[in-house]
Amino acid sequence: MPAYEQITIAPHLVFDTIAAGTPGAPLVLLLHGFAESMHCWRAQVTALGDMGYCAIAPSQRGYSPGARPDPREFSHYLIDRLMDDAMAIVAAAGHGNARFHLVGHDWGGSIAWGIADRHPERVASLTVLSRPHPNAFNRALATDGEQAQRSKHHKAFLEPDAADVVLANDAKWLRERLAANGVPSDAIERHLAVLGNKDAMEAALAWYRARGAIRSPLGPIRAPTLYIWGDADDTVGRAAAEGTVDFIAAPYRFEVLPGIGHFAADQAPERVCELLLEHLAAHPA
Q: Are 276 and 125 in contact (CB under 8 A)?
């Protein structure tokens, strides 16, 4: 089982994490998305630790109570700050300027794509679940009406009462969203223990309100990349998923998980672990 730890990168930025493995081993940093938490990576952190890696999955800015700047000031939640957090966590965990493996899902995937573009010399391998390359995603939004329909919930998150709506009736919306995507009930409870309160939800929604998604084109990704997409994902369509290959300038593997929804790490943990371990073994740090 992973261990609970805290990592401090500044006096007001203390991140809750789950971790496994030996501190000096090759690092794997795993970044969660919305509406989950570090706990989505429990199976993967455990498997990575067992295979000799040092695996760290933080609950990111706003999700960790000790790293929750005022969400009313959206600039605290711009994606550049989220990327800087990730790199600072790597350094605070004792990995300085060493290369490391990077894994991201959903919003964590957006951060991972950005880091791979900004710090190609640091990323030994990249694994992204669900979230396509930003260029492919933005192209699909502009040309594929289906993708625009799948992403319409983003606008609802900008409404002032969005946190109240999501958390109403014992977080009914959130529970139903996760359950409909095959997230087990015990995993839902772990995520709600992090996210199921007004302060955390307002901070999580600040990621959207900051307009922090990557809008300008990224350069070609030069890290070996594994992209995992469930063909039952209700937020990412096939055009964006299949189009990601156009923006990778490195060894690339695209894995489609039949019948799997948006939250693959929770819904199909064994398969995600298998694919991730194969990818890391093929591209050592």
A: no
User: Six-digit token pair at 8?
Assistant: 């401090």
Q: Cα–Cα distances in Å, from 39 out to 42, 97, 148, 215, 264?
A: 5, 27, 29, 28, 13
The strands making up 27-31's β-sheet, listed across from edge to edge, are 3-10, 13-20, 54-58, 27-31, 100-105, 123-129, 225-230, 252-257
Bridge partners of residue 105, in order along the sequence? 129
Residue ranges making up the domain that contains 104: 3-282
Q: Residue 180 to residues 53, 149, 190: CA-CA distances in angstroms?
A: 33, 18, 17
pLDDT at 212 over 60: no
Dist. CA 45–CA 42, nearest whole Å: 5
CATH code at position 131: 3.40.50.1820
One-letter amino acid of 169: N
SS3 252: strand
State the pLDDT at residue 219: 87
The secondary element (H helix, E strand) that includes residue 126 is: strand 123-129
When pLDDT is cut at 50, 70 and 90, the band that residue 54 belongs to is: very high
pLDDT of residue 158: 76
Provide DSSP, 61-111: BTTBGGG---TTSGGGG-HHHHHHHHHHHHIIIIITT--EEEEEETHHHHH
Query: How many domains are there within the chain?
Result: 1
Q: 3-class DSSP state for residue 238?
A: helix
Phi, psi (degrees; rounded to nearest 5) at 104: -145, 150
pTM of the model: 0.95
Cβ-Cβ contacts under 8 Å for 114 (sequence gap 6 or more): 79, 83, 134, 214, 218
Q: Reply yes or no on whether the pLDDT at 154 is more than 70.
A: no
169: left (phi over 0), alpha (psi -120 to 50) or beta: left
The amino acid sitting at 106 is D
